[in-house]
Design a protein that fits this description.
mainly alpha; globular; 6 helices; 60% helix
């Protein structure tokens, strides 16, 4: 995979028309710039807009969307997220009835599955007009709750 991406970068100067390349390993275009979560979701959104998924070009422009279409797409996206999480789990020796070393942890595949999860999560957010700003506010509220839980005795261990 690394050789393929390096070849794409050296031949075309970019991969999949991403506007912010960040770090592409082993390439002539390596940079120290890291992508933030917001950067990643913005690039996913741009990609989805160009692709016409999860919203078609017409739906992207529409003032009103059919609630049934939203529901059906949500079901598909949630099923896809479940599948990607299962694929992530399969990258690990997760079976408690087997010895821990029955298979190696596949870190490169884990990274791929996390990226797939981000793409479907981004599509879910787009399908529901859920902005990153709204998610960030919910995250900050949740972190306050989590820190309060620690103060009232939630244990750091089981």
């Amino acid at each position: 995979m690394r050789l393929i991406i390096t070849k794409l970068v050296s031949d075309y100067g970019h991969v999949y028309d991403l506007k912010t390349l960040g770090y592409i390993w082993g390439s002539a275009m390596e940079t120290e710039k890291s992508l933030t979560v917001i950067d990643m979701f913005n690039e996913i959104k741009e990609y989805h807009e160009e692709l016409g998924f999860p919203l078609s070009k017409e739906e992207q422009k529409a003032a009103f969307r059919d609630p049934e279409a939203v529901r059906l797409m949500n079901n598909q996206l949630i099923a896809a997220l479940h599948n990607e999480v299962t694929e992530l789990q399969e990258s690990t020796p997760w079976k408690p009835w087997r010895p821990i070393n029955y298979k190696p942890t596949d870190i490169p595949n884990m990274a791929e599955e996390v990226v797939d999860i981000l793409f479907f999560l981004g599509a879910f957010m787009e399908n529901n007009e859920l902005s990153w700003e709204r998610v960030e506010k919910a995250f900050r509220r949740k972190m306050l709750v989590n820190h309060d839980r620690i103060k009232i005795g939630y244990s750091k261990t089981r």
